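Lab manual, section 2.4: Encoding a predicted structure.

Procedure: take the sequence of the chain (142 residues), apply the prediction step described in section 2.3, and record the output as structure tokens. A sample record is shown.
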Amino acid sequence: MFKLRWKYLVVAILLFVVEVLIAVYVNDNFVRPYFGDFLVVILIYYFIRAFLKIPVNLLAISVLLFAYLVEVLQYFKFIKLLGLQHSRLANIILGNSFQWIDIVAYTLGILFILLIEKMASGQAKKDTIERQSRAKERRDIS
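Recorded output:
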């Protein structure tokens, strides 16, 4: 089940850097609140995928449910219940206000992941078929 896959880890690290840059330097009404939420589920997905071999759909749904849980915790002011309402880091990581649009952003992020994985899977199948075809051609020539 555990297997380090560098390509996923590199993507996760790059997304983490983008998320940090957004959190620190962007203070607008679109990129930070919506695009950041879209990216965060992709970041979590790729980070987990870098270390664990879990079926794509299972991992995608798990990440989405986790994101929904965090959003529900925001609804119940979980950071305040923990006494962390003044912590900038806790507010950046967990957020502090429930919004339905965040649910939409998380869902779109996971749908994007599923699309990317489907395209990658299709390309991998094409590559396998091409390799098999070339190998057969070489055998036929011999």
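Check your result against the sample. The longest helix spans residues 100-141.
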